[in-house]
Structure formats: structure tokens, C-alpha cells
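sry for the spam today, last one i promise. C-alpha cells for design, 191 residues
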């Protein structure tokens, strides 16, 4: 996954893959006919991991949009900590719109993306939002802010041993960020 994430499908080297895996090229091609079959296997594995460890744990019952996003971030970080390679790999696949994906992989990727988005937006209590700003714009502002925050966080954690990081300061910063988002986009809480 690291090789494909770093170089994309076309530039990924099976020589580098077997070297990092500590296996012979013969063993690799015993299990996979070619690089494309390996790539598609990894896409399928990564998507199943994301579904099981992230999407299936999203809370659709929380009516507060920012609270739901907060819980989703916690679930995603837990999954990322278990296997950051999956997220890096799929981000590359998704962002590069890999032409090497077969129809099954493309359909599965799109289906999981739509399912996760639906779980984030379903049954949101928009009465919490400010009334002087269009609700769709509030959704977009919150989403952009949280996705930008997430990208900055992931970039800062890249290459670090996730098992040795104390996440408490990160969570404290994230919670402060969410409070500001609520203050800017939600109705003032009644005293």
C-alpha cells in the first residue's frame, strides 16, 4: 500500500514492493498474476477495512451536526491508528481517480463514500443553526472547516509512530475548534 500510495499505480514498482515485504518476486506473482491484480486486491482490502472500522461505526442518531462530526472524527482516528496505510492508500486512489480500478472497485468506492456522507447528513437538527445564514452554506462551512482541520492534522502526524503519540492535546485542540465552529454557525445558547 505504501508503494502505491507514494507513487500511484503506474509508477509503483513490484521490485520495491517485494523488497519492503521481504518476499521474492516469485512468491508475489504466485498469489497475484500481475501488478493490477495485487492493486485491486489491496483496494478491496482497504475498502473493507474502512467499511468495518469506520463507516459501520458512524452515529446516525446524533442530531447535532458538529457533535456528529466530532464522533465521526473519533471513529476515523481510531481506525487510522489501527492502519494508517489503508487511509493513505485509498486517499491516493480516490484523489488520483485511478483508471486502473475495475467497475466493481469503482462501484464499491463510490457506494462507501455515499454511505458515509449520508450517515453524516441524515436527520440533522437544523433548528440549531443560525437563522441569518443559509443552512446549506452552514453545512458547507462546517464541512470545509472540519476537512481542512483533518488534513492539517493528518499531515502533522504523517510518518509518526501512532502507537506512541499522546492524543490528549490533539483532542483538546479539536474540541476548542468545534466550540468556535458552533459559536459562529449555531444560534446563541440560551443563558
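last one done:
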Amino acid at each position: 500500500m505504501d508503494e502505491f500510495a507514494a507513487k500511484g499505480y503506474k509508477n509503483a514498482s513490484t521490485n520495491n514492493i517485494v523488497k519492503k515485504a521481504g518476499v521474492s518476486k516469485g512468491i508475489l506473482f504466485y498469489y497475484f498474476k500481475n501488478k493490477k491484480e495485487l492493486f485491486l486486491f489491496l483496494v478491496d482490502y482497504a475498502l473493507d477495512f474502512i467499511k468495518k472500522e469506520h463507516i459501520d461505526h458512524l452515529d446516525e442518531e446524533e442530531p447535532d451536526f458538529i457533535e456528529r462530526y466530532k464522533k465521526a472524527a473519533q471513529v476515523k482516528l481510531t481506525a487510522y491508528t489501527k492502519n494508517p496505510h489503508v487511509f493513505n492508500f485509498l486517499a491516493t486512489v480516490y484523489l488520483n481517480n485511478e483508471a486502473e480500478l475495475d467497475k466493481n472497485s469503482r462501484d464499491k468506492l463510490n457506494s462507501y463514500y455515499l454511505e458515509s456522507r449520508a450517515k453524516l447528513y441524515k436527520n440533522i437538527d437544523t433548528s440549531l443553526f443560525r437563522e441569518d445564514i443559509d443552512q446549506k452554506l452552514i453545512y458547507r462551512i462546517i464541512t470545509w472547516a472540519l476537512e481542512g482541520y483533518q488534513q492539517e492534522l493528518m499531515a502533522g502526524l504523517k510518518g509518526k509512530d501512532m502507537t506512541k503519540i499522546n492524543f490528549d492535546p490533539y483532542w483538546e485542540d479539536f474540541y476548542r475548534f468545534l466550540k468556535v465552529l458552533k459559536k459562529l454557525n449555531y444560534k446563541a445558547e440560551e443563558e
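The mean pLDDT is 88. ok im logging off now
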